[in-house]
């Protein structure tokens, strides 16, 4: 089925796409030990926001996360999780703040990758063309795919680091075993040689 669009609808379509894509961001931050990092988004009533995060490096790969509304009421809180996704629909206009806390750790710094995307609320009266509704639906689906791809990239990086660390440990363990083997052989040769030495009493 082919859909033909007139130039009359083009500005509305472009505006819809820009309004959806403009509210998407991805970040990589370092949360140092005993500290927290906070960010905020200004939302209007009925706007939607989704925060997806994953700890890529540091300690036990865990982080505390919470999200508060403009009145500082905690909407969601997650304790010591390595990955998570939180979605909210704003019930009031204002500044919504979300924080990543590493205050439980006194030594290890954490690398956290997260992305934030949202949907700016548009009433049904403002969306008249079926094509515009389809574009909104496709934009939401593309954002979800983008989040999943970023999650896969972080997991691949973490697993690669784990594999490389394991290979290094195996390598150095093999070197240590070889050195111990050489030392044991040298000691055995020396010890056996002492049995065949002729002791002369002068």
UniProtKB/TrEMBL annotation:
Pfam families: EMP24_GP25L. The chain crosses the membrane at residues 172-192. Keywords: Membrane, Signal, Transmembrane, Transmembrane helix. Residues 1-26 form the signal peptide. InterPro entries: Emp24-like, GOLD_dom, GOLD_dom_sf. Coiled coil: none annotated. It is found in: Endomembrane system; Membrane. Residues 36-118 form the GOLD domain. Belongs to the EMP24/GP25L family. This is COPII-coated vesicle protein.
């Amino acid at each position: 089925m082919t859909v033909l669009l007139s130039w009359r609808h083009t500005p509305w379509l472009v505006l819809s796409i820009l309004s959806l894509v403009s509210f998407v961001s991805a970040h990589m931050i370092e949360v140092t030990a005993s500290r927290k990092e906070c960010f905020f988004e200004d939302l209007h009533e009925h706007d939607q926001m989704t925060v997806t995060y994953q700890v890529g490096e540091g300690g036990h790969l865990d982080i505390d996360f919470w999200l508060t509304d403009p009145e500082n009421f905690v909407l969601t809180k997650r304790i010591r999780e390595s990955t998570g996704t939180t979605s909210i629909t704003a019930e009031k206009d204002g500044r919504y703040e979300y924080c990543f806390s590493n205050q439980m750790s006194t030594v290890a710094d954490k690398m956290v990758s997260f992305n934030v995307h949202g949907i700016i609320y548009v009433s049904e009266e403002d969306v008249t063309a079926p094509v515009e509704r389809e574009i909104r639906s496709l934009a939401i689906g593309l954002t979800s795919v983008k989040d999943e791809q970023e999650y896969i990239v972080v997991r691949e990086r973490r697993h690669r680091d784990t594999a490389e660390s394991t290979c290094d440990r195996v390598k150095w363990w093999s070197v240590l075993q070889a050195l111990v083997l050489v030392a044991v052989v040298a000691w055995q040769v020396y010890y056996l040689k002492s049995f065949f030495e002729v002791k002369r009493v002068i």
